[in-house]
Amino acid sequence: MELQSTPLNYLPIIIQMLVALGFVVTTMFVTHKIGPKRKTKDKLTPFESGIEVVGNARTPISIKYFLVAILFVLFDVEVIFMYPWAVNFKEMGAKGMVEMFIFMATLLLGFIYVIKKKALDWD
After folding, report:
1. Rounded Cα gap, residues 37 and 77, in angstroms
2. Percentage of residues of the chain with pLDDT beyond 90
3. Burial 27-65 (b: 16+ CB within 10 A, else e)
4. pLDDT < 70 stretches in the chain
5. Cβ(119)–Cβ(97) below 8 Å
6. pTM of the entire structure?
């Protein structure tokens, strides 16, 4: 017996999305209308963690910062793939163990490549 999806099956999802969107729009509209409207010089000045802003915000930042952040996210997401493997370790047997070693070797090769390229050095 083959299951067929019809547009009617997606109706609950569409309704939920419309309700969520309606809630967001309504909340933004109501808070804009009933919120305080006093604009003072202090409220309009930029504020960053309690520190007065000095200089231009458009100064160039080293690409190393972004590279380290992207590498962190990349390796962090790859490590997340190890959790389902750990949960189902006994059911996978030796084949699952070999596949995980291949996955970890690929991760290790990527990490070695990053180290060799000195992507994590700040100098």
Report:
1. 43
2. 27
3. eeeeeeeeeeeeeeeeeeeeeeeeeeeeeeeeeeeeeee
4. 1-2, 123
5. no
6. 0.47
